[in-house]
Design a protein that fits this description.
The chain is of the alpha+beta class. The chain has three helices and four strands; from the N terminus they run E-E-E-E-H-H-H. The strands form two sheets. It has a two-stranded antiparallel ribbon.
């Protein structure tokens, strides 16, 4: 089944925001994921850990518009085992996890 939508909106205080973009990805087994592109200034990060990972904290309007219009890269599905440190893989497998 193909997804079709014309437009998604982000509303803040009742006003449509044109500085956000949304993308939907199909995943295996009937799952899906939505990705939002939002200005870095909209990040809410009470501990500051996520904000530290940003390489740029602001953009000029034209540069941000180009990023919003850029093609969305494909979503990569990774096995849980790829997120584990190598020295934990044996214990993960012993506990019933699949090592791919």
């Amino acid at each position: 089944m193909e997804w079709r939508f014309q437009q998604l909106w982000c509303l803040k205080e009742g006003r449509a925001r044109s500085d956000w973009a949304f993308h939907l990805h199909r995943l295996p087994k009937g799952h899906s994921v939505g990705v939002a592109r939002a200005p870095p200034s909209e990040v809410v990060d009470h501990n500051g850990e996520f904000a530290k990972t940003l390489t740029q904290h602001s953009y000029e309007a034209a540069a941000w518009q180009r990023l919003l219009e850029a093609p969305e890269p494909p979503f990569s599905v990774l096995p849980v085992s790829s997120l584990l440190p190598p020295d934990s893989l044996a214990a993960y497998e012993d506990a019933g996890g699949d090592i791919i």
